[in-house]
Amino acid sequence: MEEKLNLTSEWDKTFAKSPKVDHQKVTFHNRYGITLAADLYMPKDAQGKLPAIAVSGPFGAVKEQSSGLYAQAMAERGFLTIAFDPSFTGESGGMPRYVASPDINTEDFQAAVDFLSVHDQVDPERIGIIGICGWGGMALNAAALDTRIKATVASTMYDMTRVTAKGYFDSEDSEALRYEKRKALNEQRTVDYKNGTYARAGGVVDPLPEDAPFFVKDYYDYYKTNRGYHARSLNSNDGWNVTSSLSFLNMPILQYSKEIRSAVLLIHGEKAHSCYFSKDAFKQLTGDNKELMLIPDAVHTDLYDRVDIIPFDKMACFFNTYLK
Questions:
Q1: Residue ranges of the Xaa-Pro dipeptidyl-peptidase-like domain (predicted)?
Q2: Where are the alpha helices (DSSP H) in 196-291?
Q3: Complete DSSP assignment for 273-284
Q4: What's the N-to-C CA distance of the chain in angstroms?
């Protein structure tokens, strides 16, 4: 039995509702029994079995933000899509709240494929996925594992296990620094257990320091302003549990990305601080069905919601080519 979730009935997205698609709330469960909440978008007057796409991300966001925008835009282009909240976040189930996992969040994508595979209006042989930011890495991880996924787009991708264990630009890649991270996080475990609550790491810093790095200002401009703020978004509010980082220190993803046989499109802003994640991931991919697309002058969050920059038509062409 799936957990009964309390889903909002109002349109509470950070983007306008499209008149070209129908929308409804749906739920499905993953292999660990966690019930996930999703928004389903379908082209109006759709006939027959459709190609389908599951979308999630960014890391610490909710489906009412970027993933929903992507899902709606792809539905406008003829796909049945779902944008889902990962386990423990947003309107999805799972306890404790506000925790992430390389394993469970990869499984969340596979559970979305489960749901789409048995949907009456989906062709199960034509299913793709889109991962944004930290869920771009999860999407590639899922593509390496799930042979039902025929095509994957990773947009403005982060490898959350790499950045957690090695720091930005691998500047903290040493045993000594990782030991200090482990020590601090395990001490926090003791405090949390004693208190009976989980300390939160804090979302995007607010107020914004004048000397904040550009990428922090970039995140602030999205998550902390009317542009992208959402009441259920971890990044917009109190962030993840502090100890959520533990498994990311010890369980690197993308170990078998070179074995992905299905099609992959990596999209990144040329001026994004995170661009090296996509460039390095692309080097590991093999086969003639892999592509890296760099968007001139774009920074990380431009690919969250800048519809004038996000290459939706390119993505539609990619999926139409490989979801045959």
A1: 33-177
A2: 214-223, 246-250, 275-284
A3: TTHHHHHHHHHH
A4: 34
Cβ distance 243 to 198 under 8 Å? Answer: yes
Q: Which amino acid is at 268?
A: H
* CA angle (176, 171, 304) in 5-degree steps: 130
Report yes or no: 273 and 298 within 8 Å, Cβ to Cβ. no
Amino acid (1-letter code) at residue 228: G
Note the pTM of the prediction, 2 decimals. Answer: 0.97
Distance CA 217, CA 224 (A): 10
* Ramachandran quadrant class, 296 (left: phi over 0; alpha: psi -120 to 50; beta: rest): beta
Q: How confident is the model over 138-163, as pLDDT tens digits? A: 999 999 999 999 999 999 999 999 99
Q: Each residue of 72-131: pLDDT tens digit?
A: 999 999 999 999 999 999 999 999 999 999 999 999 999 999 999 999 999 999 999 999
Q: Which domains does the chain have, with CATH numbers?
A: 21-159+202-239+253-322 (3.40.50.1820)
Q: Do residues 9 and 81 touch, judged by C-beta distance below 8 A?
A: no
Cβ pair 129, 142 in contact under 8 A: yes
